[in-house]
UniProtKB/TrEMBL annotation:
<feature type="region of interest" description="Disordered">
    <location>
        <begin position="31"/>
        <end position="53"/>
    </location>
</feature>
<protein>
    <submittedName>
        <fullName>Trypsin-like peptidase domain-containing protein</fullName>
    </submittedName>
</protein>
<dbReference type="Pfam" id="PF13365">
    <property type="entry name" value="Trypsin_2"/>
</dbReference>
<dbReference type="InterPro" id="IPR001940">
    <property type="entry name" value="Peptidase_S1C"/>
</dbReference>
<dbReference type="InterPro" id="IPR009003">
    <property type="entry name" value="Peptidase_S1_PA"/>
</dbReference>
Amino acid sequence: MRRGTWRAWGLATLIAVTTAGCGVLPPLPEPVPSEITPSGAAGLEPALGSDPLSPDGFDAVQRMAVRVRNVGCDELSTGSGFAIDKHTLITNKHVVADSSNLQVSTYDGRDIDVGTAATAALADLAIVRTRDALPSFPELAEADPEQGDDVTIIGYPSGGELTISSGLVIGSTRDPLNANLGEVLVTDAKVEPGSSGSAALDSQGRVIGVVYAKTADDDSLLVPISTVREMLSDSAAFEDVTTCTGS
């Protein structure tokens, strides 16, 4: 893909949520200070049904998005994810970290029974296996998008209703949270806390990346699909999540 001329931002430019994971590679840095307050959810729109062939008004692209609730030992957090087959979904490592109980629900409020979860040592990615079948899953793009390409992000900011945010791929940069990952994508599609783990789609509805952070300028950062594909093909790239235990 053509790369922009972006320079890496420092951690101070990020408004992101992330946690360190264990593995042979260096862990992610400590979370960005919680006193940084995210801006309002401008630019996010309710994901109203658009498929006339769907009885409930949701098309296949919207059905693949799931809400993730992480009931931890100390707090409850929410994120997003998306199915890649009938029993596998992708989300962020920081969405499932320090979990006592992971809860997954679909666009229509149906709870999905979770089996196992594993996180990547290199990127902010996690795989969740489910016992129940997931409603729908999209196609993964073969290659990363180019600067100027359309992007649509579908997820559950703040654990609320399903939303759609549209924009453009505006460049790439070195990952400001983990230099070992390499290049990540930058888009101007709006995201908010809870959007972490959302699928970013191209104009044909194919996944081109996974949302994992936002910048102080309200741009969104994506793990590119090339990285996702590379890690999914490596059986050693993920390790089982260590669940927390209450006191």
